[in-house]
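Fold this sequence, please.
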Amino acid sequence: MSLTKKIFKIFFSLFIAQLIAVGIWSYSLLSDNEHGLPPSIISSLTKIDKSILEGVALQSKIKNSLARDLIAYKILELNGVDSVRYIDSSFYNQIISSGQYVNCKNYNQVIVCTNNNSNFAVSFASLEVGGEVVGHLMLEKSLLGAKVLDQKILIYIGITIFIVFLINILSLFMLWWKFLRPETSKLIKVFESKTIDPTITIDEYSKIQNEFIEAIDKIQQSESERLKLESQISKINLANQVAHDIRSPLAALDMVVSELTSLTEERRIMIRSSVNRIKDIANSLIAKQDKNQTSNNEVGIHLTSTLIEEIVTETRNQYRNKTEIMIDFKIEHDSYGLFGVFDAGQFKRVISNILNNSVEACGQNGEIQILLSLDNGQIKISITDTGKGIPIDIIPKLMEKGYSYSKPNGSGLGLYHAKNMIELWGGSISLVSTVGKTEVTIALPKAKQPSWFIGAINLQPEMKVIILDDDSSIHHIWDERLTKFKDQLEIIHCYSAQEVYAKTKHLNIHEASILYLFDYEIAGTNETGLDLIEKMNICNNSILITSRYFEPMIQQRCMRISLKLIPKNLAGFTEIKFEIPRKINTILIDDDAITRRMWKSLAERKGVPLKIFKNVDEFEKEINHIDKDSTVYIDSNLGNDVKGEIYSKKIFDLGIQNIYLTTGHDPSDFENISWLKGVIGKSPPWS
């Protein structure tokens, strides 16, 4: 047994003994301060059943002494007292006034006293019948053998306990000074120096020492890991920022390269190679730092161009020592937003295996071109290389399991796996080869675009297009793409959220005639473009442009608020539709549903371009888009106390002259209204 455990047992035993002694002492002191009587004596003298007292009182009242004495004898038996006597009131007064009994105290209407010599104690209980005291019951109990300790003795006991307590404290101090203090000092030095001291002999101290050193080691290890993690996070943030900064000008370059026609083929190839290399750097940074980008190896809806671009990047990096091999990925304009339903991981494996075959076929130099397009409603992926080609009789065998051509260490599983997976997704794969050229074509069903993806940007004359991006190259992209509409649009460029607020403070920002094109990441602020769109409540006429479109959190937020999204690398390929609204020639404002249906039906039958509004609020929302030469038919009673003949004055003041009141009332009721062209019935004039 260790030293500390022995010391603990000794002092624990002493503590229990002291606790018992203090308990006895406290019990004696608190038993009764006036009588010095034990609680048991008090209880036997005062605990008398109420019904028995009532019985004694009743027998005393009717002067039945025999019955009274029998009942008193019952009390003698139950309470364990020495004697029980009945005394009348006069004798009771005489006893109390005689001074024979002293230290009298009332215990719940029972008087307890002791005699002068404290040899015995007595109690007096009043006997009442109907509120009248008919006598008293006197109980006696000898105190011989039951007398409590003298107060002086109790004081001596208390002093003795206190002395023992001091001895315990002194002994504990001496033990600590001799045995524990040296070990404690050693342990404190261990805490200060953080090094093991082998001279510590107490088991518990040795255990504390070891646990302390282990804890210090863990803390140091955690601190090292924390610093390493902070360094990694810093690198991740830097890589993401660099990738973001690169991708913006890349999108502009991509668009320009796709439209180059004046340069020679050699120069176009050189520029395209440089753009691809920069694109590879951006893709590699994001792929290394964001493992969730393409980690979803389940069948789902995926943007095909992004997955192909990732594999092209990986393949370029894998074969970067083969500098004479050019791998080019091209997206046709009609392939914008092609989504397919497949396993992303397996899809990338298929494309990767085919590209590896093409690189090996090219040897040390050659060209590999990947083309993504839309063909008869299907996704078409063509991978063409300028390698040595494949004999025509070998081609049918290449899709068979275990067959490999011109690859000594080939497993013959690449094309076999590709064929199985593509057919599993409802597609097909074919291979055509001649000397110096091989083309693999993959066809996959086209999936419906997700709700967050926008297929085309719709513009109208006199629209305001507000562009928010911290990179000027993105502004150049939109300027280039909107240049043919610049005379009919107002383009507002913003480089920060503050600039957006400043340039829109005088606008009704919720107007349908405003389109917001916001980047997700905005330099110099923690607020994203998505945050800004939500804060301004402009989701219905905004589009989010971001290279982080693949993140589930961003997609889910966009779907929750019905916000459309464009991948930044596809900004140069997004279709732009410029629609000129059909001119409205005829307008009806009427709150009656039956009338509106009748006018609509007859207008469609007669080919009349009719626009119907059920109240003036709806009309006012589109009043800026209504031609001044239009004819307006307005009901007299429009509900909510709105009178057509009065409201039509406002329409007249806006410059619309052809206003007719439609009503079932007599036209003479509306004479002398100068702004009305006329008053007609509820049927349209062309019916």
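The first strand starts at residue 83 and ends at 87. The chain has 18 helices and 24 strands.
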